[in-house]
Write a structure and sequence with these properties.
alpha+beta; 10 helices; globular
């Protein structure tokens, strides 16, 4: 499912999708509306390097956040464990999406104005483009970036709905892949189904359960994470230990899908997503040109620097 040629990108990459949208270096050959458009790349142009930059940058953010999670001076304080662990998973999921040529990108007003101008000059403007988050899929063969305004109430809810759709698609692709041994097919499908089940816990059918927990901890001080707490020292020790699971390979992480221990299920799910993003980074870095992969001056470099911590 990797974006074609992504593994062969070389050198440090710094591009951003929103900046490209604001550059106006593209054209349209179909109607552009407020929430839907298909950017057509100019001959010779490519977005692969931008996806490489964003994949590495988000993976690096996931690693840096995970490494930075430290036990506070108050042994039972777990609020920032939940918040930071959530963001590590959020960044990791962004990186995973970029690896397959999908981005959840916020179109700024200035970006939309430039795209509107291009569409108007070419006669394809139906209505102004909304400044919002868009799901963007890069079709490298046809040299198009198909963008649809994300649905949902907020940026995080919108993002996890996009990621949930990706997991569903990935599961289908696995089942249809005749090249995989049956045992591998079943195992991969099972793991994807597990993480999707966790993200959709307690009726959050858009896949934004992790975000709901983060919101409850941050804004209404739930889940016994703030003083006067309510969780035992032993349970707090266990949660901090589970957070470190991100350093393990994803197939060695035991996801919890039942509702008996939501805090542990939350922390393990976040660790799994970080681990999965790192696994993809390592795999992709090994398949490019040795020592020249864009990841070796990005996420892999950071991972090597933090491996001893």
């Amino acid at each position: 499912m990797w974006l074609p040629d992504l593994a062969h990108v070389q050198g440090a990459q710094t591009g951003r999708m929103s900046d490209w949208v604001g550059s106006g270096q593209y054209y349209f050959d179909s109607a552009v509306s407020g929430g839907r458009m298909s950017f057509v790349l100019k001959p010779g142009d490519s977005l692969t390097e931008i996806f490489a930059a964003e994949m590495s940058r988000f993976a690096s953010a996931a690693i840096e956040t995970s490494v930075g999670i430290a036990r506070p001076g108050m042994p039972k304080s777990t609020a920032w464990l939940f918040i930071q662990t959530y963001y590590s998973a959020f960044y990791a999921a962004h990186s995973i999406l970029r690896s397959v040529g999908i981005s959840a990108t916020n179109f700024r007003r200035v970006d939309c104005q430039k795209a509107d101008l291009v569409a108007e000059l070419l006669g394809f403007s139906e209505e102004p483009i909304n400044a919002a988050q868009f799901k963007c899929e890069y079709r490298s063969v046809s040299q198009r970036l198909d963008c649809n305004k994300a649905s949902g109430k907020g940026i995080h809810e919108q993002f996890w709905r996009i990621f949930d759709g990706f997991l569903q698609s990935a599961s289908s692709n696995v089942l249809q892949n005749d090249a995989l041994p049956v045992e591998d097919t079943q195992d991969i499908f099972y793991r994807l189904d597990q993480i999707r089940s966790v993200l959709r816990s307690h009726g959050y059918n858009d896949g934004n359960w992790l975000s709901s927990i983060r919101n409850e901890v941050t804004y209404t001080q739930q889940h016994e994470t703030w003083f006067p707490y309510g969780r035992s020292r032993k349970d707090c020790d266990m949660l901090f230990k589970l957070q470190k699971e991100w350093r393990n390979e994803p197939e060695k992480i035991h996801l919890r899908t039942d509702a008996s221990d939501d805090p542990a299920k939350f922390v393990i799910a976040c660790a799994f997503l970080v681990s999965l993003s790192i696994s993809i980074v390592k795999d992709m870095g090994s398949r490019g040109i040795p020592r020249k992969s864009f990841l070796r001056s990005g996420a892999l470099q950071l991972l090597n620097q933090t491996s001893e911590r």
